[in-house]
Amino acid sequence: MSNPHDMSRAVNLLQALVRINTCQPAGNESVVVDFLESQFAPFEDVVWKQRIDHGANRSSLLLRIGPDVPGGLAIIGHLDTVTVGNIDDWKHDPFSGDIIDGTVYGRGSVDMKGGVAIMTDLALALLESRSELKKPLYLVYTADEEKGLTGVRAIVEAQTLSEIDALIIAEPTNNKVAIAEKGALWFRFVVHGRLAHGSKPDEGINAVEIAIKIAQYVQEVVASDVEPHALLGPATASINRLSGGIMTNVIPALAEVEVDCRTLPSQDNAKIRKAVEAFVEQLMADTPGLRVETELINDHPAIGADAEDPFILSVQEAVRENGYSDAPCGMTYYTDGGFLVPKINVPFVIMGPGDESLTHQVNEAMDVDSFLAGRQIFEDVITDYVM
Ligand SMILES: [Zn+2]
Questions:
Q1: Continuous segment of H or E residues that includes residue 144
Q2: Are residues 200 and 335 in the same domain?
Q3: 314-372 pLDDT, tens per residue?
Q4: What ranges in the chain are assigned the alpha helix state H?
């Protein structure tokens, strides 16, 4: 189904997507959804469509090509990007989508309008070829992946994907096959102790010391009972925010601490949460006058797929045949997949073009060669799966 014309359209789509500003926190994904709908408008009669409007100019979109039967393959891509930060730090306008020396510059070019452009281009090519598909192909475009996961939550609720057989999360991996991703568990503790003179610590309840103690306990719980994962490495817990105290000679009455835990597929976030809550309860019971507020900022499970699954083996074959390493890897960032996969329990890969180390950075840029190689790999996988 490929010809040089198709290739240039894929690149054009990437540029067009980069030119639509979908930065968080506003997102405005509805503008991209309108654009995508217009691309598929000529095939209205044969494409099943579900648009989900979340309000505030935010939308997600689900398309199905091929028969309305159980099974099939879904490709998921988010439409939002992180913010550009200080625009003056960018070498090129983050919304120009210009190609300079074989590279498309712009916010989202890697994370993940590259993947979104590829899935769109290939679906259009399939429709143009009027091929009869044996199995359905779903395109899943989500809003708000970088923050609240609004899109994927609504899609899970709609249950449209409950019968699919396999999933590609088209996030940037440099065209490597990732079959695991870390989970995230973020805590905030607000510790209310008791003020006292610095010379009489016994009379106070030192909120800063207790905040540190709780944070260190979280680190201990996350690291214990789990061996490093072959593809993801160890579970981690970083104490990334800490504030409290007023003067050197005053026992502080108030402190706040935030811990960012990244968990492994063999870990249960709920179990960690319960252990931490029990520890905090015990501290309060042991320390009359102490009050700790525990807030869960983020709770996203880790996921891992079976490396021997036939779908994953077929993706590896496509990657290999296109000259890339087929060694499976893991991703430390989390995706919509962490929310979706546990609900539908299917084999998945995280795979897409672009250098993942450039995501969320200034001067984010997609190498066109890597992008076109990614397109070819996706084409091979899709052809193998649904034709
Ligand atoms: Zn992403």
A1: none
A2: no
A3: 999 999 999 999 999 999 888 999 999 999 999 999 999 998 888 888 999 999 999 99
A4: 4-19, 29-40, 113-129, 150-158, 207-223, 269-286, 310-321, 336-344, 368-386
Instruction: Select from 323, 334, 375, 327 the least CA-distant residue to 354.
Output: 375
CA of 59 to the centre of ligand 1 (A): 17
Last residue in a domain, options 247, 273, 300:
300
Q: How far does residue 69's CA lie from ligand 1's centre (Å)?
A: 30
Q: Of the candidates 282, 300, 318, which is a domain's last residue?
A: 300
Round to whole Å and give the CA distance between 177 and 374.
Answer: 11
- How close is the Cα of 30 to the center of ligand 1, in Å? 18
Counting the structural domains of the chain, the total is: 2
The rounded Å distance from CA 146 to ligand 1 centre is 7
Distance 335 CA to ligand 1 centre (A): 6
Domain that holds residue 296: 183-300
CATH number at residue 212: 3.30.70.360
What pLDDT digit, counting tens, does each position of 189-228 carry? 999 999 999 999 999 999 999 999 999 999 999 998 799 9
